[in-house]
Each structure stands twice: as structure tokens, then as C-alpha cells.
Sequence to fold (942 residues):
Amino acid sequence: MKYVKALLSVAFAVFLVYALSRPWGAIPALGPFISPYTGFWQNGEAPLSGHFQDRELELDSLREGVTIRFDDVGVPHIFAQNNYDLYYAQGYVTAKDRLWQMDLQTRAAAGRLSEVLGSRTIEMDRRARRMGMGYGAEVNLKTTMSDPVSREALLGYTAGINAYIDQLSAKNVPIEYKLLGYEPERWTPIKCMYMLEQMTLTLAGRADDLAMSNLLKSLGQETVNELFPNYPMLNESPIIPAGTPWNFTPLPIPSTSNRNGAPDSTKAGNEMMPAIPLSEPNVEGLGSNNWAISAAKSATGYPILSNDPHLELTLPSIWYQVQLHTPDMNVYGVSLPGIPGVVIGFNQNVAWGVTNVDADVLDLYKIKFRDSTHAEYWYDDAWHKTRKRLEMIAVKGSTDSVRESVIYTHHGPVVNYEGEKGYTGPSLAAKWIGHEPGNSFRTFYELNIARNYDDYRQALTHYVGPAQNFVFADNSKNIAITVNGKFPLKRKEQGKFLLDGSNPADDWLGWIPMAQNPTVKNPPRGYVSSANQSSTDPSYPYYINWRFAPSERGTRINERLEQMTQATADSLRMLQNDNFSVMARTILPTLLEYLRVAPLGPGQKAAYQTLADWDMVNSAEAIAPSIFEEWVGALGTAIWKDELHTDSLAFRYPSRDRTEYLILKQPDARWFDNVNTPAKETISDIVQQSFKVALDTLTAQHGPMSPAWQWATIKDTEIVHLSRALKPFNSAPIRNGGGGSVVNATTHHHGPSWRMVVELGPQPKAYGLYPGGQSGNPASPLYMNMLAKWEKGELNELLYMKSAEEKNDRLQSTWTLKKK
Amino acid sequence: MRVLGNYLIILVATALLQFFMPWWTIAVVPFLVCLWRSGHPAVAYAVSLAAVSTVWLAYATFIHNSTQGNMSDRIAELFSLPSGTALLFSVTLLSGLVAGFAGMAGYYVRQLFVKEPLTIRT
Fold:
């Protein structure tokens, strides 16, 4: 009997310990997780009053000493004697604040999420592998490491991150590791390249070639030309002002493909399992604004520059503020965790910023394989060998890796295969700028130390992608903007539709010479700006893309800059927060005219009146923008869905500009008729019906019209934790104005991820913040300490230090890094 | 006296050892102590539970308060508990149960080795 008791009691105790030592589904191993010695408790942080402490660290492989001063919002100001130490310290402090973010983003890029998250992310990983992210990272690493300056930066940065990782004990790892049940792994230089690839994928990784080919097939060339023009028909305010002379002799471009670029009869298929987001509509809010005004327009007598990149808003913030100082450099701005240097910022003499260029740098080529082994493909009237790259996707909780053989043609990797499960289109290979070797780090490095306009122009020559509109201002009172990146030399519309992978004439024809990229310096109008709209007017001799972001933000920015005089940093800050709806100004009066004569119920009348009285500002408390935005969406669907939508094939709707043109200038167009009803609808019918649909939708979701319809509520901006799953790490709901088509492009999950204004001058004065904070730890007082100000549209003054010994009340603590 | 002694030994040993050892120290220590000396299964259970709970409750409360619950409150929400304080007590209870059952196992294993107390036959 006593043996039984002993055995049972021991067995139960052992079972208890075992059960608490292993994860159960999404629940981490509870024992270590809840222990106050090792668990989540240890990730708690002292409130701000006890946050800042001086430290002295002895670290491996530093060459000389480094001093880091932290200011009151936790920004590190790094003072080093050489570049290696500088980037070492940047790596160290970035890892201190953002280690898990760096880990997750580089894993996502490398297709290694399943290794730590299990089978639910296999498809995501497969996409990354098929897209050739690893190939792109490898070729970029090779180029970058061949440049001694870049090499030193990457090695220093890597060593710094690893020095931080090495001193971590189990109890100190970021909370996400504890929750997800894995450990940090050492950093390697290629991870920096993966970060760049991830940005390239986010900003230049979409193609609607398949959708456009489907439309071409179903609607015919003439209709596609009519509905999908290559330049906006109603409004545009191009980045390079119309009339700017092109001071170069353009390269010749063969005018047509010898076998006609239009697709053959191959069925372009659906995309139930697309390898890449083949026809995802461009996300509104995934754009950016930047501008600079000349000395003549400013009250300071020097240029003022502004930039707010719009990206998915997450916690921790996408950006990380830092000041980097050596005897040859003193730059302040934001970095991307995982990449050394400053991406957007300013120094003693210059300031710069970036917005995305919507260049067509991802093209899909139809591939004809000889047989199902995919060993050979047809090109230039002969069979050519493919290359195979075996990708192993490790999966947590499984002993077997998923094997993915990615086939490479000379175009690039094959992202979809004819006949594969869930996909009915042709095999497609992706030709993508992310596979092009380059050294984009070098561009940022040279901007970080730039002293004048010539340095800026020189810095841009190294840049490959994702193409950006680089705005610039300097102390010699120059302002400039360059549509910059490595742009393929293409025929007009080459890549608007699927390309023929067997036809050499469909290959990219070379590159637009960097010096011929669209650029303007000190234009007579006294300002330069960009908001992702068309790079140039149609007079530019090269083809960059047939579609760009809608023109409203650019139009509004240019209108306000045109009128600005005696401007200060605050004038530019207010423009960043401008909520005026150019879209409403363009079409609302016409739409209301159709509504005025319609029979309306009492609720509809009230909504009509709300719109009629609206000042067309998307402010937080207004109800009209909620109705207008819902209505415009319903209207677009009502006009286009009956003709263009299919359940099984990729498709896209015409641009907003084209739709507005239709409403304003072509009210009798056949597109207004709903082909699914026997009646013949007119524009008037469609406008009225969609108005009712919009009100019904709002009523169904939020009850009858009331303050519950306020724009901030409907827009519902929230800043979510990068995991997208750990809700307690999200922000509280944000109450601000904005919208996808307004300058303050805040939407549900996207918006200004960093706002910066820099007044150039003998002593630069700069302001900026992001909707988050320096720290990635949800328990830190610095996790989202900048959010309240961001919500109100305010900015923090940025502390630009001159020396490590400088005294300033905002400086809180000093870290001294010593050579071990 | 032995009960208080065991309580203190387990308390001090687990409090210190956990700085270097894994979390399951809270099972091993009560097991060994009760294997060494214990007189009754319920007492072994209770003493182990009380000692380890004291350690976890004290340390966790200290962190919870000094960090104003800025992590514990969020984790509580993640586990659908009403507050960081509720989490604090749940965690404490769980640690106590592990220690209690380990201590009781220690007692029963001890019974395999100790001789039956002498009984005098007449």
C-alpha cells in the first residue's frame, strides 16, 4: 500500500511539473513564464522617475570608448570616435529597445516564421521563399560587403547587437519571446539585408499585371485604354512640376515588342493561393508626404523641410530615433531597427526625407516549361535550363521541414505554377527590383554625412530600391527633390499586363541612367513636394508606371505651399495635420445635386443636410466624412462591380481619378447601368442608390445617425502590437481626424509613422515624433509616450547635441561603453 | 518546532536557489525537505505550500508594486483575468500547489524507508 501511495504521489508531482514546463497550444510553458524569478514579472519596468540610470559597460571588440546620452524621451545620442564603434553602439541600443521586432521582421522576410510560430505561418514563409527574398538579400549582401565603409558599418552593427544578446539572461529576454516560447538568436549581417528586402516588398512588392491581363481579355484593348489610362484624366499635380526641362538626351527605346506585348490566349487565372499579392489594391495610407520650402517662403530665411512616411502603424514603432556622432558625422533622425545609420533626418548642413515612388518594378512573365519537372523553359526559340534553389522551411513542433524547390528563370523566381492546387493561371516568374544587387545603405550613409547639394546627388547614385522621392534642403538655401531608384528601361505600358517570358523583346531593356531620373532643384515656385502621385507629367521620356497614388494629397499640399509666406516649422506641422478633403471638393457638390431632386426619407434628408453643411474637413468629431467616405466606397462598387468583378479571377477597379472623371464629365456613360438588372440605371439612380446603401451600412453597424457616427469612431484608428494578436499590447483607440485621401493620411491601421519638420540654418531646429515610443517593451514608460502628442498633431523638439559633454535639462542618463 | 523549521528551510532554500536554478526548484526543495523529515502527509503538503507561496507572493508583489503593474496588468488581460492582483494570487496559488504536492510526495517516499514505530505486544 505504501508503495502505491509513494508512486502515485511522486507521479502526480512530476506530472504537475511536466505539465507546467511545456507549452499547451498558444499558452506558453507556464512554470517559467509565471515565475517571478524568470517570467513576465521580470519584464515589468520602473516608472519614468526610476527609468534612467547611468551605466558603465565593458564590451568586447569595441575599438575605443563610446558615450551614449539618453534624453527625456529615451532617444540615444551616441558619441563615438570611429564608424565601427558608432554602429556597434547603435546596434547595442537598438537591440536593447527593439530586439524582438528586429527578429520578427527579419524572420518574416527570410520566410522563417514557422520555425518559431509553427505551422500556421507556412504559407507566409512559402511566399517569402518563392519571392526570392533570400536570393535578393544574398546578392545585396555581396555588393554591400565589397564596400569597405559599408562593411565596417554592418560588422560593427552586428557585433553591437550580438554583444547585447550575449549578456541577456533568460529572465531578461523581451516578453514576446517568453510568450511565444523561443529564444533570441545571434544577428548576422545578412539580416540587415533582409530588413531592406522587407521594406522593398512592402513598398515595391505589388503587381496588378495579372488583374490587368484578365481585364484586357474580358473587356478588350479599347475599353481597358478607356478605363485604365496611363495618366490621370481629371486632376494631377506631378512631383516634378510640369514644364521642368529634361536636360539630357534620352536613351532610345524599341517602340513595340516584336510579338506584341498583349497577352496571348493563355488564361490568366485566379489567385486563391497567390505567391505574391498579385492584385491587391494599393493600400490607402501606405504612402507618404514630403516637401521643402525655399528661404524666400520661410520666416527664418532658410529652407524648411517636412516628411511624414505613412506605413502600417504598429507597436513597437517602425522607426527608432537616434543621434549618431563621430568626428566626421553628426546626424539625427530615424533608423529602421535592423539597419545601421539614419534613413530620414538632418545634420548640421542638410536635411532630407523620403516618400515612396509607385514605380513598376515588379513584372510577371508567363513561363512555358518543357515538362512537369520544370527543368527547362522556352525562351528565344530554344529550351533553357532553370536553376533550382531548395528552400527548407523548419516548422516548430514538427520534425520534418517543408521543402520548397524554387525554380529560377533568367527573369527571376517562379511564383506560381500552372496547374498547382488552387491556381488556374499560367506559370509566372517575377522580375523584381528586390533581386537587383545594390548598396542602398551607402546612400543613407552619404546622406548622413552630406554637406551640400552635390553630396546629396552623389549619395543618390548608389540607391537601387525601393525607389523613393528624396526631398532635400541645405544651408546654402537649396531645395530639391529627386525621383530616385534604379528604374528599368521599358517600353510604355511594358509590365502593365503580363509579359511573355519566352520573348526576349519583353525583357527589361536596361536601366534609366541615374542622372536622368526626374529631379528638380530650386524651382521658381519656391517649394518641392511629393505625396506618391505621378512622378512627372507625360513629357518625361521614360515609362516609370501607368498608375500612381491618387493626386488629392499632392494637390492639397501644393495649393497650401503655393500660398505660404513667412512660413515657420509650425506652418509645416499644421500642413502635416491638414484634414481637408480634396476628393469631397471635387465630387461632393455634383453628387449632392443628384440627391437634391431625389425623394428622401427623414433619415436620408438629415444625412443629406449634414453633407451639404460640411466644410469638407475630415475632423475627428464630424459626421459628414463618415457618410461621405462610406458613400464614395459604395458608389465605386455600384459603378464598377457589375462589369468588372469576378469571383474567380483577379481584377481591379479603375482609379479614383478615373471614376471621378466619369461622374463629372461622362454622366451618360454606359458604366452607370447595372447590367445585372433589366432596368437601365442612370448616374442619378446609382448616386441615390449608393447613398442609401451607405446610410444602411452605417445604421446597421452604428445605429441611426448620432454622435456614434463621428469620423474618429468610424475610422477607428488603432495602433496594434506587431504580433497582431497580443491585444493588451495595443494602444487605446485613437481619436483623430484624417483619411486615406487627405494630407493627414490616418486610416484604420495606417498613417504617419514619423512626422518630422526641420528648420535649416546655422543652428538646425527640428521637431518630430512617432505614434509610439523608443522602447519595444509594452511595460516601459517609453512604449507609447509620444502617442498622445501624435494624436493631437503636436511634435516634440528634437535635441540636436554638439558634443558628448553638452549640458541640457532634457538629458537624463549617460552610458559609458568601454573596451574590455 | 519541526514544522516551523521545515517552513523556514524551504522558504530560504527556494528563495535563494531560484536565482540560479530553474523554476521547478519549488518542487525539488519541498520534496527533499519532506523526504528528510516530515511526520504527516497533510502537514508536509501545507508547509511546502505555505513556504513556496510566501516566496512567490512576496517577490511577485514586490515587482508588481515597483513597476505599477505595467506588465502584470497586461498579462492578466491576456489570460482573461480581471487584474494584475488576481494574476498575482493565481500565480501564488499555482506555485503553492506544485510545492504542496511535491512535499507530500516527499513524505510518502520517506515512508518507504522509515521503520514502523515500535508497538509493544503483550
